[in-house]
Write a structure and sequence with these properties.
By secondary structure, the protein is an alpha/beta fold. It is built from 13 helices and 12 strands. The strands form 3 sheets. Strands 1, 2, 5, 6 and 7 form a 5-stranded mixed β-sheet that branches. Strand 5 and strand 6 form a beta hairpin. Helix 5 runs parallel beside helix 6 and helix 10 packs antiparallel against helix 11. It is elongated, with a radius of gyration of 30 Å. It starts with a helix and ends in a 26-residue tail after the last helix.
């Protein structure tokens, strides 16, 4: 078996395609390169769009970057045939190892997408694959666009809404998630009520009527709440647990910061008070117990935090209602500003909070990784 036959088998080529020549170039100033020259059997005919076998009119030279051969960059070369179709037109034949218009093989593109989906930064992907970053983004955008075009959210009834920033709060995007299937169905630039309209319009374009959405899980953003009823009129609003707990932890941290101004011993203990107690090591729990006794305001705030988190374990809305009312009374008695503000937020949104307490299906919220210039697909991506 010669090298041409071996590489033909490795590439999965079928008649009439075959590797005609294998060359290996070396450059003292650059990395070595493997070049595989592909041809076709003489007098071969190729199918046109009407599925008729047509003769070759002429050929045009093409090149594609392939997966590296060990540490060596690999390129495929082919004089691609152009055929005269049955209607008299001249058309270039589609090759089986690459998509039309691409300078990469399908296997190369699949590897690039696989690395991105595993949360590798695009700049790092380009270093590994030895290509310009913009070319990787072109691959990414092609397949994501293809995936979005064939995506079918027709069974959607439970919608999750999440806003996040891509650059430390300076650039926002809003995600729409199918909570039953735990997958992203739409991403739109910005935040606020305009993004909900964009999500509703996207779903409508996909054949999903706005009244089909029965439940929406989102944060306590006033802009989201105000427009949710307009965009999805029959949906029940649920405030997801992640954001409620986030607000609670922010209140806890504000108390710690205020106490820290007077007590240096609290320095470096931000997460001591924000983490769940069961997640603390023995070494971390010891100073926690000492500080909540030593600093009464901090200790009372921590007690209120633990009491509120017990709500998630209650069996029904009635029990949660009673406990929450008593919790709000205790907050008013404690008169801790950060917790008074949080309690007012809870009172204003208690209906959606009670739904969240009784529907663990909707919480916590799905988190989706974000690429630097685009958005990563975490489920049902169209694969090359």
């Amino acid at each position: 078996m010669n090298s041409e036959t071996l590489f033909s088998m490795a590439l999965g080529l079928k008649t009439p395609w075959q590797v005609k020549d294998v060359t290996f170039s070396t450059d003292e100033l650059a990395s070595s390169e493997l070049h595989l020259h592909i041809g076709f059997v003489p007098d071969s005919r190729f199918l046109d769009d009407a599925n008729n076998l047509c003769p070759v009119h002429d050929t045009v030279e093409r090149q594609w970057q392939h997966l590296s051969f060990f540490e060596h960059t690999c390129y495929l070369h082919c004089a691609v045939p152009r055929i005269t179709t049955t209607d008299g037109k001249v058309r270039t034949v589609d090759v089986p190892w690459a998509r039309p218009g691409s300078g990469f093989t399908l296997l190369f593109e699949a590897l690039a997408l696989a690395l991105i989906e595993r949360k590798m930064p695009v700049n790092r992907v380009t270093e590994i694959l030895k290509v310009n970053p913009q070319r990787i983004w072109t691959i990414f955008n092609h397949w994501i666009s293809k995936s979005r075009a064939v995506d079918d959210p027709g069974t959607l009834t439970k919608l999750g809404i999440e806003e996040t920033s891509t650059k430390k709060g300076h650039h926002y995007i809003t995600l729409a998630v199918d909570l039953d299937e735990a997958r992203v169905i739409h991403i739109t630039e910005g935040k606020g009520k305009a993004t909900l309209h964009s999500i509703q319009q996207h779903l409508e374009n996909k054949g999903v009527d706005k009244e089909q959405v029965k439940q929406i899980s989102m944060d306590l953003s006033p802009s989201f709440i105000a427009v949710a009823a307009e965009s999805f009129p029959v949906a029940q609003i649920t405030f997801d647990r992640f954001h409620v707990v986030k607000l609670l932890n922010e209140a806890m941290n504000q108390v710690r910061i205020a106490e820290r101004k007077e007590h240096d011993a609290l320095k470096g203990h931000k997460y001591t008070f924000m983490r769940n107690r069961e997640n603390l090591s023995d070494k971390q729990e010891k100073p926690l117990l000492e500080m909540i006794k030593l600093y009464p305001t901090l200790g009372e705030a921590y007690r209120l935090k633990l009491l509120f988190n017990n709500l998630w374990e209650l069996p029904d809305k009635q029990a949660a209602d009673a406990v929450l009312r008593q919790w709000c009374v205790e907050v008013e008695t404690a008169k801790i500003p950060a917790f008074l503000k949080f309690a007012n937020t809870v009172r204003a949104h208690c209906r959606g909070l009670f739904i969240s307490l009784s529907r663990t299906l909707l919480t916590p919220f799905l988190k989706v990784p974000i690429a630097r210039k685009g958005y990563q697909c975490t489920g049902n991506c169209y694969r090359p």
